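Hi everyone, sorry if this is the wrong subforum. Our group has a chain we'd like a structural model of before ordering constructs, and none of us has done structure prediction before. Sequence below.
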Amino acid sequence: MRIAVSGSHGTGKSTLITELAAVLPEMIAIDEAYDVMLSDGAAFGERLRVDDFEALCEREVELVDASNGDLVVFDRSPADYLAYMVALDADAPSRKLITDVGEAMEMIDLVIFVPVEEPDRVRVTPELPRLRKRVHALLREMLVEDGWGWGVPVLEVRGSMEDRVHQVVKHVASLR
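Answer:
Right subforum, don't worry. Here is the predicted structure as tokens:
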């Protein structure tokens, strides 16, 4: 089963994955493409640009395609990086990239959508708050509302981290 934890920056995705790993020992956690590329020696500027997000998106597609295991959980999905590209420049993604993202998303069995909540649960002020809200809205459209037609099941989690973990564990158990 492939699960992607998706959401804008500063919503608690990585923390959720860490907490899930503590209660789902069989889970294989896959770092987000940004961290994978950094560990592979890639260099990014202080602020990511559209072409950076394109490279990240392509790498995330590769990570999904190469994954296997009973319970694989991705920190981000290809849709996340596509949303950042669209938020920065709606005309930036090529048709090929959109097709590749769609094919990768169809390989994912469940998306855990971590929204920006009101009041915001993030204790530190995230960088680029406008971009954060724009990406949140795009991901909601793409995933929750299935506006891009990928048809991937989505579980939107809310509440405390304990509540979020409980929601995911209960949902995953129902799918097994």
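For your construct planning: The chain has a mean pLDDT of 94. The first strand starts at residue 2 and ends at 6.
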